[in-house]
Amino acid sequence: MFFRLVVLSALTLLCNAANGQTDSASKTDKKPYHSPTKAAIYSAVIPGAGQLYNRKYWKLPLVYAGMGASAYLMLDQRSKMRTLNLQFEKAYAIKKDTVLDANLIAERDNYRRMRDFGILAMTAVYALQIVDATVDAHFFRFNIDQNLSARIHPSPVRLLTVTYSLK
After folding, report:
1. 1 DSSP assignment
2. FRET pair for 126, CA 20 to 30 Å: which of 6, 53, 62, 111?
3. Higher per-residue confidence, 24 vs 56
4. Is 125 exposed, middle or buried (0-12, 13-18, 19+ CB in 10 A)?
């Protein structure tokens, strides 16, 4: 819970700082204002809500597939690790001086490592969906419908010159 609060606070501050920038294209656009801060907060509170706010509905299954797969990995490995821990407790209860099999210990450590990997994967998916929603909100009004052309040619003054024009 504390981690979510810290991440949410940091993202809110970053989004507010980045939100102060304006470009000339946004002043001529007739679309209503679309807030990157809202998208970040929505995604932080409910994973995938920022993608819905940005009207990128096709990304919602990807977010939940990533969260679900990493949650399944974490829970499955945790269950297997707990089963082995119970076996260790039973072995210790029967004989206090029993030396546990090194293979069982290595197997339990592998389950623990994979559980930790599942936790990291879930955290990464959670953070990436917040970043994705924020970036999508920044580019929500970006218009790419214009026909742009570019030419690269050598110049006597400069090594390379790039010219572009709107058609």
Report:
1. -
2. 111
3. 56
4. buried
User: Where do we find the tokens 């969260």?
Assistant: 67
Strand residues in 1-158 grouped as ranges (E)? 148-153
Q: Looking at the chain, how many residues does it have?
A: 167
pLDDT in tens, 106-162: 888 999 999 999 999 999 999 999 999 999 999 888 776 666 666 777 777 777 776
Q: Which two tokens stand for residue 33?
A: 């204002």
Quote the pTM value. Answer: 0.65
Q: What is the DSSP string of 9-59?
A: HHHHHHHHHHHT---HHHHH--SPP--HHHHHHHHHHSTTHHHHHTT-GGG
| Structural domain total, the chain | 1
**Higher per-residue confidence, 110 vs 24:** 110
CA 126 vs. chain centroid, Å, equals: 5
- Whole-Å CA distances, 22 to 41, 98, 134: 21, 69, 15
